[in-house]
Design brief:
Structural class: alpha/beta
Distance between the termini: 71 Å
Number of helices: 20
Radius of gyration: 25 Å
Low-confidence stretches: 1-14
Helix content: 55-70%
Number of strands: 6
Order of helices and strands: EHEEHEHHHHEHHHHHEHHHHHHHHH
Mean pLDDT: 81
Length: 416
């Protein structure tokens, strides 16, 4: 294996756009990788991509996109294929909501400066297609990244992740263009969680470091596959968020494991911590025992405790559904299903309320067309029928959780 760094920070002479961009050249096994670091909502990055493709010759273009994001970028109407019933039934409403929150963060910044989010990736795609070059999609699916990030951290850090997502929606402060350029020092996902991502090693590992290794493995795999064809690749342009440049450069130099097993390992979901389920089971068990003891002491005491459980959990879930802008029948469904949660542990309360919501307020074509724009502003989440249904799912579950703790406190207090 031969590894060679060649003038990693030296753009071509006279290149104004490229002069401000972080660039690295790494040669391994006879293939030169030109790593171009970009900011995902930067005019300068778009110009740099176009300029380097005009000035230099490449055999392939690799971009920091996964297959779903690529299809979404090439087909803006792809959300029309979203089956909300299936999303709710499979328990993926929270994940879809998180993806929309990520998208809205990027689009909000892009809207401020009049540039499409991911425009530098689109410029790379258009440039590759115009030159009839292969396009390599090297990033890991964002859903897998989020799941691995959430499962890699403890409860408090998970709250931090949720706060980062929520904060990206609520914040309406304008951002200076000079600050946008500073995104080249990080990564879009990492930027959403700001200092929190850098202060949490497990979160930084899942959001940044793992993806560095994954994208490097994808580059090696694509290069290996191309070597077995009539048109082997000798020079590759790699367009990535600049926060990944140093990590990928180092990984290209040092990575020795086979690419395919490495990708499989980095795409596997680690087992979730058993403690949340154990704690939840313990809470339900403690409340059930307390209610049983109160019934033993007297039918009236037991009935009062049972009504406390029904009202607290039901009202909590119903308030959550109502706060999300759900239909009264959606809130009623949440109220009815919430007290039965211990008997249906695998079915979230939000599935019932969101199911009723999408049945009553079926998404219109206009909702799919405007979804990406509506979620830029936090008020749009309540206006669009699709995003509102996702909120009903999430808020009903949160209301149920709050009601459970209130009920538990009141019931155990009456026992003592």
């Amino acid at each position: 294996m031969q590894v060679l760094n060649e003038n990693p920070d030296s753009p071509p002479q006279g290149s104004e756009s490229l002069a401000a961009q972080p660039i690295a050249h790494v040669t391994r096994d006879g293939v030169e990788y030109v790593l171009l670091g970009t900011a995902h909502v930067s005019r300068a990055s778009v110009e740099a991509v176009r300029e380097i493709l005009d000035r230099e010759t490449f055999d392939a273009v690799a971009i920091e996109l996964c297959e779903p994001r690529y299809k979404s970028m090439r087909d803006p109407e792809s959300f029309r294929n979203l089956d909300l019933f299936q999303v709710i039934r499979q328990g993926k409403a929270g994940l879809v909501a998180a993806n929309l929150a990520l998208s809205s963060f990027q689009r909000r910044i892009a809207e401020q400066f009049g540039i499409e989010p991911g425009a530098e990736m689109k410029a790379a795609i258009d440039g590759a297609e115009a030159r009839d070059l292969p396009i390599w999609l090297i990033d890991r699916e964002v859903g897998i990244t989020l799941k691995r990030a959430i499962r890699s951290v403890g409860f408090l850090d998970r709250i931090g992740i949720m706060a980062g997502l929520a904060g990206s929606l609520i914040s309406r402060e304008d951002v200076e263009e000079s600050e946008i350029e500073k995104l080249k020092e990080g990564d879009m996902l990492g930027s959403m969680f700001n200092e929190f991502a850098r202060e949490s090693p497990p979160l930084f590992e899942a959001l940044i470091s793992e993806r560095d290794r994954y994208m490097t493995a994808r580059l090696r795999e694509e290069t290996s596959d191309a070597a077995n064809t009539d048109t082997p690749v000798k020079r590759v342009l790699v367009v990535i968020g600049a926060g990944h440049l140093a990590g990928i450069e180092q990984a290209i130099e040092s990575q020795t494991d086979a690419p395919a097993p490495m990708q499989e390992e980095l795409s596997a979901l680690p087992p979730g911590s058993p403690w949340p389920k154990r704690i939840g089971f313990a809470v339900f068990a403690a409340i059930a025992v307390a209610i049983a003891v109160l019934f033993y002491r007297g039918a009236d005491s037991g009935a009062d405790a049972l009504w406390t459980w029904v009202l607290c959990t039901g009202i909590g879930a119903a308030i959550g559904a109502a706060a999300a802008g759900g239909h009264p029948l959606s809130a009623l469904a949440a109220f009815i299903v919430a007290p039965l949660k211990p008997f249906r542990p695998g079915i979230p309360v939000g599935a019932a309320s969101a199911g009723v919501e999408v049945w009553i307020h079926r998404p219109r074509v206009a909702d799919f067309d405007s979804l990406r724009d509506d979620v830029i502003h936090w008020t749009g989440w309540w206006r669009n029928r699709i995003s509102r249904t996702l909120l009903v799912f999430v808020f009903s579950n949160l209301g149920m959780m709050f009601g459970t703790w209130v009920a538990g406190f009141r019931i155990i207090k009456s026992l003592l």
